[in-house]
Inverse folding.
C-alpha cells in the first residue's frame, strides 16, 4: 500500500467505554478488506508495565508471546485480529520517561535541557511509528488510555497533534465518548460529548470520527446535532450501543459504514463491503453453544436477539439462517425472538424483522430485552401484531407476542392488552400467546406498598 496509515483512538467523558473494543473492531474491518493491521496501547500511568498493578483496579494483565506483562486490551487485539502482540504493542508513561532519562544519562542529548516538548513527545512519536517502520504495516491503530482532560494524557495528545500535522492524510483520530440517558427526563444528552470534543480541540486536535457510546439507540437527528456542534461529517458520527456480546461490535460498526468512512477520509479506495463470513459463522456457533447450554440446564424457553448488524446491513438471509439454526437446537422448546424495536427505528423495519423472524421459526416475537430505550412502544406493538395477524392468515400458525421494557404503569399494560385484543382477538389473550414484561411495573407497585425503593424483579 505504500506509506503506513496511523489511526488514533481517544476517549472522553468517562473511562471504561470500550476503546479497546472499538480499536479491535476497526482493525478487524480493515483486516477483512485485505489490509495488514496491528494495534498498540499507550497507557498514561507511570508504572513500567501493568505487572505490578492491582488487578481489582485495572484488570488482569495479559502476557504477550515474548513474555511481556501487558494491558488486558492486547488480549482483545489478538482475539479480534488473530495476531500476536509483543512488548512493542504496549507502551506506558513509565517506559517513555525511563527511555528518555537513560538517554540523558548516556549523554545522547549532548547537554540539552530535557523537557516534555520536544523530548518526551519525540519519544512517544518514535514509539507510535516503531511498528509501522519496522514491519511495514498498512495500518497501525494506537489506543490512548485514559480520558481526554486527564493531566497525565497531555503529552500523548500533544504527540497526536504533531503527528496529525506531520503525516497529513496518513493520520486520523477516532474519538469515543459517552451519551448518557436521563431517565427522569426521558432524554439522551449530547452536552458531555460536545464538551469532550471541545477539550480535544483545545489541545489542537479535531477528531475525524466520533463513536458515541450509549445504552439506548440514537436518532438520526441527535447524530446530526452532534456532527454540527463538533465539526464532523454526519456519516462520521456512529453509535456504539450495548450489544449481546463484544464480538457483535464489528458487525454493528460495519453496518454504519465506519470502515468506509475511515478509508474515504484517508484517501483510500473503499471498494465492496466485505461479508465477514468467518466472523459471522463464529458468532452463530457461539449463539448455538449458548442455546445448547441453556437447554442442557433445563430451559424450556429460549430468548435470542436478532442480529441487528445483519438486519441493518441488509443481510436478511444471514439473520434468518441464524434463527433457523438456533431453532434446530431448541427443537420442541419455545424460541422467543427479540427484535430490539428501538434499534430498528422505522415501522417498515419492525414489520420486516417480525415477518422474517416468524418464517425462520420464532414461536414468540418480543419487542425488546427491556435494557434499551425506547423499548416497548404502542406503535411497535401495533406493527408487530399486524405482522402476526398476516402470518396467521397465511399459514394458520399462531405466534406469541410479548412487549417488554418501558411498561411502568397499569395504564401502559392496558394499552398493550387492548392492542392485542383488537388486532389478534381474544384467543390470543392467554399466557401461551400473550405476555407482558412488567418487572419494572411490579417493582414500582412494590415500592409504593413498602414506601421505599424495591428492586425485587
Amino acid at each position: 500500500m505504500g506509506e503506513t496509515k496511523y489511526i488514533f483512538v481517544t476517549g472522553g467523558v468517562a473511562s471504561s467505554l470500550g476503546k479497546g473494543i472499538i480499536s479491535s473492531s476497526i482493525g478487524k474491518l480493515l483486516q477483512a478488506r485485505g489490509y495488514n493491521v496491528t494495534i498498540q496501547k499507550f497507557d498514561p500511568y507511570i508504572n513500567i508495565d501493568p505487572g505490578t498493578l492491582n488487578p481489582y483496579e485495572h484488570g488482569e494483565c495479559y502476557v504477550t508471546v515474548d513474555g511481556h506483562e501487558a494491558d488486558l486490551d492486547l488480549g482483545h487485539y489478538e482475539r479480534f485480529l488473530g495476531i500476536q502482540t509483543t512488548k512493542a504493542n504496549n507502551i506506558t508513561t513509565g517506559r517513555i520517561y525511563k527511555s528518555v532519562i537513560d538517554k540523558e544519562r548516556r549523554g545522547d542529548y549532548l547537554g540539552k535541557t530535557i523537557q516534555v516538548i520536544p523530548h518526551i513527545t519525540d519519544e512517544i512519536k518514535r514509539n507510535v511509528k516503531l511498528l509501522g517502520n519496522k514491519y511495514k504495516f498498512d495500518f497501525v491503530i494506537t489506543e490512548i488510555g485514559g480520558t481526554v482532560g486527564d493531566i497525565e494524557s497531555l503529552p500523548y495528545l500533544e504527540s497526536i497533534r504533531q503527528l496529525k500535522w506531520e503525516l497529513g492524510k496518513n493520520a486520523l483520530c477516532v474519538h469515543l465518548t459517552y451519551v448518557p440517558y436521563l431517565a427522569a427526563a426521558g432524554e439522551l444528552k449530547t452536552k458531555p460529548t460536545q464538551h469532550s470534543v471541545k477539550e480535544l480541540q483545545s489541545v489542537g486536535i479535531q477528531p475525524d470520527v466520533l463513536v458515541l457510546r450509549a445504552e439506548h439507540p440514537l436518532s438520526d437527528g441527535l447524530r446530526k446535532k452532534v456532527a454540527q456542534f463538533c465539526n464532523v461529517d454526519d456519516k462520521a458520527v456512529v453509535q456504539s450501543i450495548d450489544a449481546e456480546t463484544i464480538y457483535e461490535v464489528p458487525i454493528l460498526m460495519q453496518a454504519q459504514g465506519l470502515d468506509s468512512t475511515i478509508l474515504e477520509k484517508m484517501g483510500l479506495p473503499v471498494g465492496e463491503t466485505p461479508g465477514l463470513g468467518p466472523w459471522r459463522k463464529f458468532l452463530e456457533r457461539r449463539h448455538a453453544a449458548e442455546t445448547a447450554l441453556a437447554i442442557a440446564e433445563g430451559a424450556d424457553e429460549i430468548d435470542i436477539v436478532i442480529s441487528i448488524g445483519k438486519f441493518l446491513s441488509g443481510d436478511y438471509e444471514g439473520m434468518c439462517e441464524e434463527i433457523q439454526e438456533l431453532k434446530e437446537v431448541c427443537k420442541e422448546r419455545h424460541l422467543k425472538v427479540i427484535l430490539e424495536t428501538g434499534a430498528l427505528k422505522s415501522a417498515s423495519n419492525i414489520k420486516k424483522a417480525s415477518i422474517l423472524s416468524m418464517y425462520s421459526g420464532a414461536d414468540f416475537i418480543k419487542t425488546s430485552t427491556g435494557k434499551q430505550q425506547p423499548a416497548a412502544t404502542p406503535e411497535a406493538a401495533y406493527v408487530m401484531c399486524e405482522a402476526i395477524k398476516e402470518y396467521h392468515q397465511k399459514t394458520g400458525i399462531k405466534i406469541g407476542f410479548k412487549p417488554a421494557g418501558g411498561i411502568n404503569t397499569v395504564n401502559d399494560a392496558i394499552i398493550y392488552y387492548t392492542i392485542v385484543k383488537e388486532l389478534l382477538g381474544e384467543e390470543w389473550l392467554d399466557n401461551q400467546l400473550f405476555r407482558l414484561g412488567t418487572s419494572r411495573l411490579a417493582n414500582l407497585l412494590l415500592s409504593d406498598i413498602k414506601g421505599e425503593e424495591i428492586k425485587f424483579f
Remarks:
- The mean pLDDT is 88.
- The chain has 18 helices and 15 strands.
- Residues 116-135 form the longest helix (20 residues).
- The longest strand covers residues 171-178.
